[in-house]
Design goal:
This is Deoxyribodipyrimidine photo-lyase. Its cofactor is (6R)-5,10-methylene-5,6,7,8-tetrahydrofolate. With 487 residues, this protein is an alpha/beta fold. The protein folds into three domains: 143 residues, HUPs (Rossmann fold, 3-Layer(aba) Sandwich), CATH 3.40.50; 118 residues, Serine Threonine Protein Phosphatase 5, Tetratricopeptide repeat (Alpha Horseshoe); 149 residues, Orthogonal Bundle (DNA Cyclobutane Dipyrimidine Photolyase, subunit A, domain 3), CATH 1.10.579. 48% of the residues lie in helices and 7% in strands. The protein is built from 21 helices and six strands. It is globular, with a radius of gyration of 23 Å. The chain starts with 5 loop residues before the first strand and ends in a 9-residue tail after the last helix.
Length: 487
Amino acid sequence: MEAERIRVLHEAEPRDGADYVLCLLQQANRSRCNPALELAVEEANRLGLPVVACFGLLDGSNGFPEANARHYAFLLEGLADAAAGLAKRGIAFVARKGSPAEVAIDLSKRAALLVLDRGYLAIQKQWYAEILKSAKLRVVQVEGDVVVPVEVASDKHEHAARTLRPKIGRRMADFLHDISPVKVKHSAAGLSLKGMDMSDPAAVLAGMTLDRDVSPVRRFRGGETEARRLLKAYLAGPFRNYGAERGKPEAGAASHMSPYLHFGQISPVEIVLAVQAAKGGKDEDRTAFIEEVVVRRELAMNHVHYTEGYDRYDKAVPAWARGALQEHAKDKRPHRYSDEELCEGKTHDHYWNVSMAEMRETGYMHNHLRMYWGKKILEWSDTPEQGFERTLRINNRYFLDGRDANSFTNVAWVYGLHDRPWARRPVFGTVRYQSENSLRKIDAKAYEASVEKLCAAERDGESDPAAEARTKSMKARSGAGTRRRPG
């Protein structure tokens, strides 16, 4: 493991007389290719102790901001899969209702040391600060959510992908190493720790207090096993045309890895190594894919890490863009819509409504259409501030990968972040405009047909044989009872 992934947050000798080494798996919800977990296993083996992995499940009034039943169903499926994988390795998994900080602080009372994984959102930084404030033991944090650690790539907020790309390019090879699972020498099977039974995600979901207006989806099922299955199938087929067709939503060239990356159910390092090793695909396919999963994704991490208030218009949007939009704030807007009309897809723009249906019903929208979708909300809002707030609100509500660094960055891009001034236009000023003509680059009718099929599958509850097989495999590994699908 690269030393630059590891940070000692609280220096202390490992505690004597402890029962285990504790690892908080709050961002990296997986049992393999997980640097934080492997470091915890190495330390536990050295100290002659078992490993306990933990997770804090936010619920009720303390729930994760903007998360709903759709997000929690996918999360819980991933936790069930991770728990099964951890048990197979001899690692205990303890999930409790409460903030990650509360859970980690309580379990750390019996731990020799605490290993944290890492995320870059403000709420995650708040958890780490709370843990450190109460820490009475050694605390180590290990980066496992990006290829090149954010501070290693750059020590400042980058202006655009063009400024970050060469910095990542110089270091990327240094961090592309396969992380083999370390053999656990001391099983945690004999430990007695109170935690939730995660083997039935539907039962856990049913017992939670949360927003259920946005229902779980059948299109995507959570878990590292499913992520790896999808990646393998993708590299054997659609990836071979990624370079030429990635901008066409009807072509099916997207990998659909973003929800799994968001919930930490697969490592970006694992994805890049698999892409580099894939027998199919051309160099242009690999280059284009790595640009998206490394450069563009890690530009988003750079943005949220170095921007205090990344979810606010006045902080996230650059001054030149705010000025340009303000100059045209009183321009005539032929179409204005309420949040309800937008969410229900009741606008005059037929294909915008189609893309909204895909998002609303299946939790996904192709990046090409996400940008068009966001630009139109800006155009149809009373003010740019209102447009920013509602774009982010709707994005985070329906997308499975909403509330992600990519989400905050992409919404801010609509308003000028990581961009430059363009020709002046009404409403937009010199911020980039996107018209209906951009849809000519795609086969809109083919896209609409694919969305209709996907939405019908959500309504009709079509079964997914591959997902059912995965469920049976998980049941066999965990020894759990029948696992019901949420929703």
